[in-house]
Design goal:
The protein is mainly alpha-helical. The chain has 34 helices and seven strands. Helices cover 69% and strands 3% of the residues. It has a three-stranded parallel sheet with strand order 6-5-7. The protein has a two-stranded antiparallel ribbon with strand order 1-2. Strands 3-4 form a two-stranded antiparallel ribbon. The longest helix has 41 residues. About 7% of the residues have low confidence. This is dolichyl-diphosphooligosaccharide--protein glycotransferase.
């Protein structure tokens, strides 16, 4: 009897050691996450260090102007704000046409800081909002990946996301755009969905709906969530993985999430009336039919069950057909069948170029090239396939969601370069899983091969696993609510029967693990290669953050033999407008510069980057494409006093108006047929030299660009 007593006394000691080890691992993970947050924040500060604390690009200037209005006038004035300085003479209702998540977030941060007597300006808060939320996104990635494959994979994925260039391009200091907070909301919503799926907790399901609401407030890309999650639910149902946890994870999201989404003014009844949301409602009906079938199966005999299933499926199909018929009737009258132009561009990549040139003219809506994948996700492109394979070993509900996420995001990123941003978190998650699994295999192999650690590892592994199994058997939790009570005695008896068979000796377990170990040399070389791969990734990410994505488009730089040249022409031009024109003067320009003109020059513009009225933009495009007399008549009818044209021929600036001119012709010609693109081309080529066509040489854009 002494031997069993000694072994039972050893189990609490092992359990204590495991508890201490887990506690130390938890503390270490916490500090690593803190460092990852600091890394994610600091790597995005190159733009502030190299240039100054300034808002970047075009859209962020509108967001900054709206945030200024919010902090100055309050939230009620913000919801009711009619802006008469844009889209003259139409104007724009800001509260009903803007996603308010970013503005409300930055406004709340500014209010909290000022309440604590930290007097930061609104501009400073706007500049640093994106780096702050990139740290939050890294932590959300850790939580999501931890739910799928454990803490090691979570930490790896978090550090990869903190540095991935695709995300840095949209979250550097000064990039005050919707994606700054939306990517965090996207990842956090997915985490709460997986958490609910793993636990079956209604509390997490409610939090998931609230996180989805924040995502809807922040970005129009929320439709990706409300289509991806139903696809995963349908996948689980089709593959026989339905459970009550799946129902709890999905049903509250559709009901509560849709009700909350309808509260956002820019969405409103689109949450139930547009085709982007119909998939979620269809799967909502299907999951209720499946839940009813499982319920009937539990209370009826097999013979009665067959009859009942036939009735339920027949009724379910009838309801589905009725709903589909109603949806078809609702969208049939729409020329786009209820889909928005951008959604149709994702489903049919050629749609925008054929029918909506205003969407195709935006550079970020173009398909990416192969080098852009290596630029934006770098070595992750090669680790993603390994991560997908690791998700199948073993396949769970959570890992199948990750596989579906990476598959859909790869497709969408191939259609539109802007959606590389959606691919980045998925690539980091799968790559984190792949790296974590690879490090686990190689380090375990080295541990078993080293003579000093071999014997201790064998004993520890055997005893720890046996002690852990006993502890798990003592604390079994009924996670699957659909398991009936009549199944439980049989399962417990099966466990008892297997207890005597499934307790091999420590030596046998160690021999099995040794068979799974790789050769020592191969493991060491593979580890070194992985470290080298990681070092290459870090160097590339730091270079991309410092050089490629930190230069604000508002301030241009060039390098020559006599050093660095800074061109501050944009801000100087807007300052000239602000100081030398009347407050009520109207300024006409291409829509790219509308937000900046309103925010920095404080002058009324004809069109801006919101691009909601294609006819108004086509009018400006037609004026730019017309001879001076015809253009003067168009602009005079719009009360225009000044025309802003950007020309970079002297310094070779590639994004000036003469380079964009053909888009003005296409958009203008789409509404006004007398503007024809071939009239501006010489033998099918776009020329701006002396060989250009007479129509080109006499149009207003050419005259203004080459004036004197």
């Amino acid at each position: 009897m002494a031997a069993p007593e000694a072994s039972s006394a050893a189990v609490p000691t092992l359990m204590t050691n495991n508890t201490l080890r887990n506690a130390f691992g938890g503390v270490l993970s916490f500090f690593i996450l803190l460092l990852i947050g600091v890394l994610a924040f600091s790597i995005r500060l190159f733009s502030v260090i190299k240039y100054e604390s300034v808002i970047h690009e075009f859209d962020p200037y509108f967001n900054y102007r709206v945030t200024q209005f919010l902090t100055k006038n309050g939230i009620y004035e913000f919801w009711n704000w009619f802006d008469d300085r844009t889209w003259y003479p139409l104007g724009r209702v800001i509260g009903g046409t803007v996603y308010p998540g970013l503005t409300l977030t930055a406004g709340t941060i500014w209010w909290l800081l000022n309440s604590l007597n930290i007097p930061l300006s609104v501009e400073t808060v706007c500049v640093f909002t994106a780096p702050i939320f990139s740290a939050f996104a890294s932590w959300a990635t850790y939580l999501l990946t931890k739910e799928v494959k454990g803490a090691g994979a979570g930490l790896t994925a978090a550090v990869l996301l903190a540095m991935v260039p695709s995300y840095i391009s949209r979250s550097v200091a000064g990039s005050y755009d919707n994606e700054a907070v939306a990517i965090f909301a996207l990842i956090f919503t997915f985490y709460l969905y997986i958490k609910t799926l793993n636990t079956g907790s209604l509390f997490y399901a409610t939090l998931n709906s609230i996180a989805y609401f924040y995502m809807v407030c922040s970005w129009g890309g929320y439709t990706f969530i409300i289509n991806l999650i139903p696809m995963h639910v349908l996948l689980c149902i089709v593959t026989g993985r339905y459970s009550s946890r799946l129902y709890i994870a999905y049903a509250p999201l559709v009901v509560l999430g849709t009700l909350l989404a309808a509260l956002v003014p820019v969405v409103g009844f689109n949450a139930v009336m547009t085709s982007e949301h119909f998939a979620s409602f269809l799967v909502f009906i299907i999951i209720h039919v499946v839940a009813l079938v499982y319920y009937i199966k539990g209370i009826l005999s097999p013979k009665m069950f067959k009859v009942a299933v036939t009735l339920v499926i027949s009724a379910g199909l009838a309801v589905c057909c009725a709903v589909i018929a109603v949806l078809i009737a609702l969208v049939a009258s729409s020329p786009t069948k209820g889909w928005s132009g951008r959604s149709l561009s994702l489903l049919d990549p050629t749609y925008a170029s054929k029918y909506i040139p205003i969407i195709a003219s935006v550079s970020e809506h173009q398909p990416p090239t192969w080098p852009s994948y290596f630029m934006d996700i770098n070595v992750l492109a090669f680790l993603v396939p390994a991560g997908i394979i690791a998700c199948f070993l073993p396949l769970s509900d959570a890992s199948s969601f990750v596989v579906l996420y990476i598959a859909t995001s790869v497709y969408f990123s191939g259609v539109m370069v802007r959606l590389m941003l959606v691919l980045a978190p998925a690539a980091c998650i799968t790559s984190g899983i792949a790296l974590s699994q690879a490090f686990d295999v190689f380090t375990r192999s080295i541990k078993f091969q080293l003579p000093g650690l071999s014997s201790n590892t064998e004993v520890d592994a055997g005893e720890t696993s046996s002690a852990t199994k006993e502890a798990q058997n003592d604390a079994v939790k009924t996670e699957k609510a659909e398991e009936t009570s009549k199944d439980r005695p049989s399962r417990k008896s099966k466990k008892k029967e297997r207890e005597h068979v499934e307790k091999p000796s420590t030596k046998t377990k160690a021999e099995k693990k040794r068979l799974l170990a790789l050769p020592l040399e191969a493991s060491v070389i593979s580890l070194l290669l992985l470290v080298f791969l990681g070092a290459f990734y870090v160097v590339h990410c730091v270079w991309a953050a410092a050089e490629a994505y930190s230069a604000p488009s508002i301030v241009l730089t060039s390098h020559s033999h006599d050093g660095l040249h800074v061109f501050d022409d944009f801000r100087e031009a807007y300052a000239w407008l602000r100081h030398n024109t009347d407050v009520d003067d109207k300024v006409a320009s291409w829509w790219d510069y509308g937000y900046q003109t309103t925010a920095m020059a404080n002058r009324t513009v004809i069109v801006d980057n919101n691009t909601w009225n294609n006819t108004h933009i086509a009018t400006v495009g037609t004026a730019m494409s017309s001879p001076e007399k015809a253009a003067w008549e168009i602009f005079h009818s719009l009360d225009v006093k000044y025309i802003l044209v950007v020309f970079g021929g002297l310094v070779g600036y590639p994004s000036d108006d003469i380079n964009k001119f053909l888009w003005m012709v296409r958009i203008g010609g789409g509404v006004f047929p007398h503007i024809k693109e071939p009239d501006y081309l010489r033998d099918g080529q776009y020329r701006i030299d002396s060989q250009a066509t007479p129509t080109m040489l006499n149009c207003l854009m050419y005259k203004l660009s080459y004036y004197r």
